[in-house]
Every structure is written in structure tokens, then in C-alpha cells.
Write a structure and sequence with these properties.
By secondary structure, the protein is an alpha+beta fold. The protein has one domain: 2-Layer Sandwich (Alpha-Beta Plaits), CATH 3.30.70. It has a 4-stranded antiparallel beta sheet, with helices on one face. Helix 1 packs antiparallel against helix 3. It is globular, with a radius of gyration of 13 Å. The two termini are about 20 Å apart. The mean pLDDT is about 95.
């Protein structure tokens, strides 16, 4: 059973395509921020915000997604980046 199986089951109940909101938190490391940002394309609405002390950065992304599998694919890639928390 995969890490995102429950989420995938819930997403499959939605109608697609649909606007989806991704959120990630990570240490404020430019390489990690770039790796997460690279999971999306130039048309994505990406907001990058440092925490008040600057130790962490949140990345919020609004993206038009075509199916549940596309969302799970992005989450699986993000999970491989050390220190990234998926919300």
C-alpha cells in the first residue's frame, strides 16, 4: 500500500480536469525550493514565502490538473526531496 493511496481514492471521486492546490514546507534551501518548483511548469501559479524567522519556506501552487494520477505523481516526486513536508 502506497503512501498516497488514501488521497488517490479521495481524488478519484472528484471531476477532472480541476484546479488543485498543492502546499509544501521545507528548510529555506535554494536547491530544495528549486527542486520543488521544477515539479511544475511556467503556467503554474506558484507562491514562495519564507517563514518569519527565515528558517523555513512554504511553496503553494495552484495548478489545473487532469486526473488523480497526475497529482499523486507530483507528490511522489516531492516526497523524494529530503526535508520537504507535504501538506
Amino acid at each position: 500500500m502506497g503512501q498516497f493511496d488514501e488521497l488517490k481514492s479521495k481524488l478519484e471521486l472528484e471531476e477532472w480536469p480541476n484546479l488543485y492546490f498543492f502546499k509544501f514546507i521545507m528548510p529555506s534551501d535554494n536547491q530544495k525550493i528549486a527542486l520543488v518548483s521544477s515539479l511544475f511548469d511556467d503556467t503554474s501559479d506558484i507562491q514562495v514565502r519564507p517563514s518569519s524567522k527565515g528558517n523555513y519556506t512554504s511553496i503553494s501552487v495552484k495548478e489545473m490538473m487532469f486526473d488523480a494520477n497526475s497529482i499523486i505523481d507530483i507528490y511522489e516526486k516531492a516526497a523524494l526531496i529530503e526535508g520537504v513536508i507535504i501538506l
